[in-house]
Design brief:
Oligomer: single chain
Distance between the termini: 94 Å
Structural class: mainly alpha
Number of strands: 2
Helix content: 40-55%
Shape: rod-shaped
Strand order of the largest sheet: 1-2
Number of helices: 4
Strand content: 5-15%
């Protein structure tokens, strides 16, 4: 009778081990799916540049201080409602032709500008214009 009890115990522990293994695999699958979705969304935001308000937009004054990092500039733009995510802006700057060219100064930007246009203005490659079309 003792050997029957041992076999039952072994069968129960093997079943419990199998259930735990299946649960672990399910957790790993969900983690991989979450990482893939998050990565896709991040990449999509980087390459699909959209203005915050594609119509006329609203002008916003932004001050870039000497020594500000790209992330600090991105956080300023995010707080002012010009971009969605400072981390995405950092990657966009790294991949753009304006890499490392942001200059300190006071800028008038619009919520109708794409991140690439803002980078052009912040780097001095494009001058901002007011509503009448004159250069600031």
């Amino acid at each position: 009778m003792g050997s029957l009890s041992n076999r039952e115990d072994r069968g129960t522990s093997e079943l419990a081990g199998s259930v735990l293994r299946i649960l672990l695999y399910i957790c790993i699958i969900f983690l991989v799916i979450w990482i893939a979705r998050t990565s896709y969304r991040f990449g999509y935001e980087i390459f699909n540049q959209q203005a915050m308000s594609p119509d006329d937009g609203q002008e916003v004054t932004v001050v870039v201080k000497e020594g500000d990092s790209v992330y600090q500039v991105g956080k300023t733009l995010e707080k002012r409602g010009l971009i969605d995510d400072a981390k995405v802006f950092v990657v966009q700057e790294k991949l753009s032709k304006y890499r490392g060219q942001i200059k300190a100064g006071t800028y008038i930007l619009s919520t109708a500008y794409t991140p690439d246009r803002m980078l052009a203005i912040l780097s001095g490659a494009e001058e901002e214009t007011d509503e009448g079309g004159t250069v600031s």
